[in-house]
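agent> Task received from the user: take the single chain below, predict its 3D structure, and emit structure tokens. No templates, no multimer pairing.
agent> Plan: (1) validate residues, (2) run structure prediction, (3) serialize to tokens, (4) report one or two observations.
agent> Step 1 OK, no nonstandard residues flagged.
tool_call: predict_structure(input=
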Amino acid sequence: MNKLIEYLHGRCINRLLSWNDQVEASRIFNMPITEIETVTLGQGILPARYQRNRSAISVSDQLILHQSCVAIIGCGGLGGYVIEELARLGVGQLVVIDPDIFEEHNLNRQLLSSTAELGSAKVEVAVRRVGLINPAITVKPHQTAFNSTNGHDLLESCALAVDALDNIESRLQLAGCCSAMNIPMVHGAIAGWYGHVTTILPDDTSLQNQYSGHGNRPGIEQDLGNPAFTPAVVASMQVAEACKLLLGRESSLHNRTVMIDLLSMERHEIPR
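)
tool_result: status=success, residues=272
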């Protein structure tokens, strides 16, 4: 370990370590990239990919992110953007859950979809995508539908869950599971030009109250559709919330919901 630390300090410039030097360290010391990144951040050295983070996120915060595990339930419109942004942010372990394959109607808005991936499992595409943009991230894919029966096993190692589902029943099951496991949940929903985001802490039943009596209904996006831009905006808000929760920032959306109207470019905040 001392030789690795000496190598890292010898190769970094302005406390930044290049990707090529990370790869070389992995080869020389026979260690996975994710472990090289852990040691690098622990030495106060920032992998150069994160240099545009450091005015907003300290090196010690970056280490917290790298050592965190987040579940993304749903890998479609919201989930694809959430996965992409969490990987680029540097969250070290992602658990991705979705039973579906990519179909042609996904191409208008789902970041992970492409004509080449039609028919491919969404979770497997997520693994390949993250491997291309940040190989220091570990992705655990589960090609299954989330429910109250398998939820505990799927979320067991996670500090946080991000709701990227498209139906009310599954959302309520996720909220119940997160509450039972004492895991915060970042809820997001989209439909047409509109969307909303809120944070649900384990003792909070507001989501159950909001959707009470509607558990067997599909989300309203079934009627209003989803253009390309709505999931990108709402997912980015969810990732910002996830980042704050992982880092212990106090400005989260607990007890309030932000609603956006991209048609009129208005934002409304509703206390809960």
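agent> Step 4: summary for the user.
The chain has two domains: 2-57, 68-271.
agent> Done.
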